[in-house]
Amino acid sequence: MNGKSKILLDGPAIEKTIxxxxxxxxxxxxxxxxxxxxxxxxxxHIAARIAKKIEAISGRxxxxxxxxxxFYRDDIxxxxxxxxxxxxxxxxxxGKNIILVDDVLFTGRSTRAAMDALLDFGRPKRIQLLVLVDxxxxxxxxHADYVGKNIPTSLKETxxxxxxxxxxxDSVTISEN
Length: 177
Prior knowledge:
Distance between the termini: 9 Å
Low-confidence stretches: none
Strand content: 25-35%
CATH architecture: 3-Layer(aba) Sandwich
Helix content: 25-40%
Number of helices: 4
Mean pLDDT: 92
Shape: globular
CATH topology: Rossmann fold
Radius of gyration: 16 Å
Strand order of the largest sheet: 3-2-4-5-6
Order of helices and strands: EHEHEEHEEEHE
C-alpha cells in the first residue's frame, strides 16, 4: 500500500452492514431486555444508528447510551489523555442485556475499559460486544458477538473508521504506517 489508503467500506456498504447487524441483534435477543451502549467517539454513533434500524425493522424502541472510557484505560499514565466526553447512560442497566458498541476491535483493551466503566453503573444480566470492524491482534481474551466486517491486518497497517456525525463521511479505510 506504500502509505496510500484503500477504501474497504464506503457509505452504502456501512449502511448495509448496520442493517445486517441490526437483524442479528433482533434474532439473538429479547428486545425488551436490550440496551445499546456505544463507546465514544464513534461507537456511540454506530449504536444510535443500529437502534434506529432495529426500531424501523421491529417497531420496538431500544434504549441507547454512550460511555466514555478515557479514565478507565490502562494506558492513561503512558500518554496524555484526550479530553473526556460525557458518559450518557440515563437508564438502569441492572438486569439488562447490554450490547457494547465500538467502531473497531483491535487489542481488546478499549472493550475491557468499557466493561470496567459500565460496571460502575450497575450489574447487567449480560454484556455482548458489537463492532463494525474486527481487525485481529487481540491482547486480551475478548471476542465480538456481532462483527460487521473482519479485516485481517498486519501490525504495520492502520484501519481508519469515519462516521458522518464526527467526520463528515462514512468510510472504512486501511493504510500502511
